[in-house]
């Protein structure tokens, strides 16, 4: 974990040094963010062939293996997936929170600013990035979560909604060989489902989540690898984290849930001021645990 923290601190120093050099420096900083993002993925043991986004990991945790769909009672995962998108874009150096002056504003009141509109290689991320770029005026993280999930009451803002996100993520996972596609009859209607075919990848994610709060617990959220920390918070906010903890023994389950409560009690404002932390990531987290 210490090497990841050092790498994060180095990234912040690079960003500060290059921001004063104009567009060329900004490009170098964005490339450094992308490199750091993929280094963190590799440290988690993900190969290029099976590399998953945060959205895909959260969806996979929520999918029933055989049935191939998420719980009908889960009304949290939609906004959770949009939060994952914002974090992905932030960790990849595409967007950031606006800078503040002497009077520091809270994370939830700072606007999301476009840094780099270069394609990420993921269709959903690129679509979200395009919407952020085309917006009439910058918006805050909570507003973007509402807009992307279609929860806004403003009919003029409905064009910002990302539709069929779960289905499109499932199709991505089908292309990666993790899921398959089937048709199921539910008496009144037929529904396309996506059962899990490669259970080793899902089990790897579950094991990664379990170990992060058991054997690899760092005590301080700032010492967590950023993608792993984001996965814990967003899986909890999407009401799918329990699925990863269900196989644990009673003793380990109590330890795991207790440590998650510790994370939920952390102050995002305080955490975002620590070296190597990503403001936008903590703004998304703050939006869900406020």
Automatic annotation (TrEMBL):
<keyword id="KW-0472">Membrane</keyword>
<dbReference type="GO" id="GO:0007030">
    <property type="term" value="P:Golgi organization"/>
</dbReference>
<protein>
    <recommendedName>
        <fullName>Golgi phosphoprotein 3</fullName>
    </recommendedName>
</protein>
<dbReference type="GO" id="GO:0005802">
    <property type="term" value="C:trans-Golgi network"/>
</dbReference>
<dbReference type="GO" id="GO:0006890">
    <property type="term" value="P:retrograde vesicle-mediated transport, Golgi to endoplasmic reticulum"/>
</dbReference>
<dbReference type="GO" id="GO:0070273">
    <property type="term" value="F:phosphatidylinositol-4-phosphate binding"/>
</dbReference>
<dbReference type="Pfam" id="PF05719">
    <property type="entry name" value="GPP34"/>
</dbReference>
<feature type="region of interest" description="Disordered">
    <location>
        <begin position="1"/>
        <end position="50"/>
    </location>
</feature>
<dbReference type="GO" id="GO:0043001">
    <property type="term" value="P:Golgi to plasma membrane protein transport"/>
</dbReference>
<dbReference type="GO" id="GO:0000139">
    <property type="term" value="C:Golgi membrane"/>
</dbReference>
<comment type="similarity">
    <text>Belongs to the GOLPH3/VPS74 family.</text>
</comment>
<dbReference type="GO" id="GO:0005829">
    <property type="term" value="C:cytosol"/>
</dbReference>
<dbReference type="GO" id="GO:0031985">
    <property type="term" value="C:Golgi cisterna"/>
</dbReference>
<feature type="compositionally biased region" description="Polar residues">
    <location>
        <begin position="1"/>
        <end position="19"/>
    </location>
</feature>
<dbReference type="InterPro" id="IPR008628">
    <property type="entry name" value="GPP34-like"/>
</dbReference>
<keyword id="KW-0333">Golgi apparatus</keyword>
<keyword id="KW-0446">Lipid-binding</keyword>
<dbReference type="GO" id="GO:0048194">
    <property type="term" value="P:Golgi vesicle budding"/>
</dbReference>
<dbReference type="InterPro" id="IPR038261">
    <property type="entry name" value="GPP34-like_sf"/>
</dbReference>
